[in-house]
Amino acid sequence: MPYVPDSTRQPAERVSAREGYDRWAEVYDGDGNPLIALEEPRLAELMGDVAGLDVVDVGCGTGRHAVRLARAGARVTAVDFAPGMIDQARHKPGWDAVKFIHHDLAKPLPLPDSSFDRVLCALVLDHIHDLDGLFREFARLCRSNGAVVISTMHPAMMLRGLQAHFTDPHTGRDVWPESAPNEVSDYVMAAVRARLHIEHMREYAVDEQLAASNARASKYRGWPMLLMMKLTPGRSRA
Prior knowledge:
It is a single chain. This protein has 238 residues and is an alpha/beta fold. It has one domain: Rossmann fold, CATH 3.40.50. The protein has helices at 17-24, 34-47, 66-71, 83-89, 131-141, 156-159, 184-193, 208-213, and strands at residues 13-15, 54-58, 75-80, 98-102, 116-122, 142-153, 166-167, 174-177, 196-205, 224-233. Helix 5 packs across helix 7. It is globular and about 50 Å long.
């Protein structure tokens, strides 16, 4: 039976990122996350036309990008460490066109060098402590004429005391998966050290349109919520 909230809320529950996202999977796509609403149209622009391209979605979650990219004609490999997330992805129409791999991003990815035209990592990096290691993997996987596209919760949100979290539909408890307190400079320097050129970098705040359409976003009006980057192989000039 679905949980019906009342006026008495239990304290937040802090769990590992793997456990948190496994539990979040059941409601992830439908919980009205304003960060996703802000990110999805902008990420599509950065990815561009993917028809006929090899794409890897690193930290694919429920396959919200992977399945869409496959429908757009890409050959998609999707990687995630949470079985619950991958299970949700496999319930989406067109999931069988995607190659799903269960793998922990803290370890080198089990994929060959220079095998992808697009390397995507969406709303994952605020849980990664070893950014240098993962950015080196992005650079290793990306073809010389390809691109790495990244989105992450803006570090400014942590200054508001906020990180990725959700309400468990079975217990009603607010669950906070473990996050990493990365700063904007950490993402920039990880790209520099991986010899990735920063082609595009932009911070996005909650605007009036999003605030009006998403109740959860309204209290963050004007506050930076999303950071996006597009990187290409070669020494960074940042």
